[in-house]
Amino acid sequence: MLLHINWLIELENEIYTQNGKIIKILELLYENNDKILTEWAKHLRNHYCSLEELDDARRPMGLTRYEYLTQIKIPDAPMIKSGEFAEILVADYLQFIIIRLIKMKVLKALMLLVLKSLIKKKFLLMMN
To answer: pTM of the prediction?
Structure first.
């Protein structure tokens, strides 16, 4: 799991849509942790291109990886950059938090079905 996801904290205050649906508010409370920040930076870069694609593209131009990413690949306009990073962060949240919760609910339901089946079999064996 991507460790930066743990920096997303659900706030108590909520916003409501015109239809009365709740919108949860998350805040990114990051730490100055080189390991997590490096992992996150690689994850963000991989949304733009793989390391292999990066090297194939930059070599003919004589650029370093950093130069290619900052000068050509990653947008430099603050609004575009923050928008794209926010989209990636939301996608990460959905993928690693929400889907995990759904899987846990499905797993719990399956476990209950198995348990009921085992109890039923045990009951039938006792009746024989």
So the answer is: 0.58
